[in-house]
């Protein structure tokens, strides 16, 4: 199985995805199948260090942040998003994942848009109580959306939204974050 994880900026979106990765590795190992993963994140976020502990290859892409408030940067960031889509298309095409998983963070917008264009299954996890703007945008590109509570379902398309809770994990003894 080949899987791309995306998200970052904070560790709130990273640690649940690491729990998913560890569970998939354990599940498929019982069947004699390996799980190959790639993480697409931000250039400056803390996710690179955390992901490297798990020996997951990491690449960064350009990603503009859309803000819900006025900022002069809102005029330029759509061009950064387009550049990120082109970069994500390249990484997705090269890696050929079976699925792309996004938890939060604006870096997921170009990745899931590119995945959608390439016909990949995309999953979005909404782990915060209120949906992020990025998750509202990528829900359109997602095959499925996982939420924590019944209350969150109202923000996403009913037919593809499921209550999944928050994936959790036990940190390794060598992790320091």
Structure commentary:
This protein has 177 residues and is α/β, with parallel strands linked by helices. 33% of the residues lie in helices and 18% in strands. It contains 5 helices and 7 strands, in the order βαβαβαβαβαββ. It has helices at 14-30, 47-53, 77-95, 108-117, 133-138, and strands at residues 2-6, 36-41, 58-60, 99-102, 121-126, 144-147, 161-163. The chain has a 7-stranded parallel β-sheet with strand order 3-2-1-4-5-6-7, sandwiched between helices. Helix 5 links the parallel strand 5 and strand 6. Helix 3 crosses helix 4 (108-117). It is globular. The relative contact order is 0.17.
Structural class: alpha/beta
Percent of residues in helices: 25-40%
| Bulk shape | globular
Average of per-residue pLDDT values? 88
Number of DSSP-assigned strands: 7
Element string (H = helix, E = strand): EHEHEHEHEHEE
End-to-end CA span: 28 Å
Low-confidence stretches: none
Radius of gyration, whole Å: 16 Å
List keywords for this structure.
single chain; 177 residues; alpha/beta; 5 helices; 7 strands; 33% helix
